[in-house]
Write a structure and sequence with these properties.
With about 140 residues, this protein is α+β, with helices and mostly antiparallel strands. About 25% of the residues lie in helices and about 40% in strands. The longest helix has 18 residues.
Length: about 140
């Protein structure tokens, strides 16, 4: 069973801090959509599978799914950007609380944090992406 992006997004939506959430078919699309902040966008980054574990005509594989949560926070409140960084930390904490260590519907393993980093920044918006992963079985 596949872990759907909508499942990841539903978990992010359990937090009350985001004024806008959604998915994005590309990371660039998320930048164009962030009009109210803080905002969070869930994006499928990659899937990789083990070799077929079945000795029959059916396939059975463990798939590692990597998902990025792109966060946008308002950076306009002060010239130093410190207020925006405080808001970013609050947003990241909310995402970690919603995702880290949870078992998503269809998932084989609990969600793990992989890495995070600056996605983009400008005078008005600080963009950050945290990457998470889980695994699931794919059988056909």
């Amino acid at each position: 069973m596949t872990v759907l992006i909508s499942t990841w997004l539903a978990k992010v939506n359990t937090t009350a801090i985001f004024k806008q959430t959604g998915g994005a078919s590309a990371l660039g699309q998320a930048q164009a959509e962030a009009r109210t902040m803080p905002a969070a966008f869930v994006v499928l980054l990659s899937e990789s599978a083990t070799r077929n574990q079945s000795g029959t005509s059916f396939t059975s594989q463990t798939v590692t799914q990597r998902v990025g949560v792109v966060l946008a926070v308002d950076n306009k409140r002060d010239r130093s950007g410190e207020a925006g960084m405080d808001e970013l930390e609050t947003a990241r904490d909310a995402v970690f609380t919603a995702l880290h260590g949870t078992n998503l519907s269809g998932g084989k393993t609990p969600v793990e944090f992989v890495q995070g980093g600056v996605y983009s920044t400008n005078a008005t918006t600080q963009w950050w992406m945290d990457e998470f992963l889980t695994t699931y079985f794919r059988r056909t």
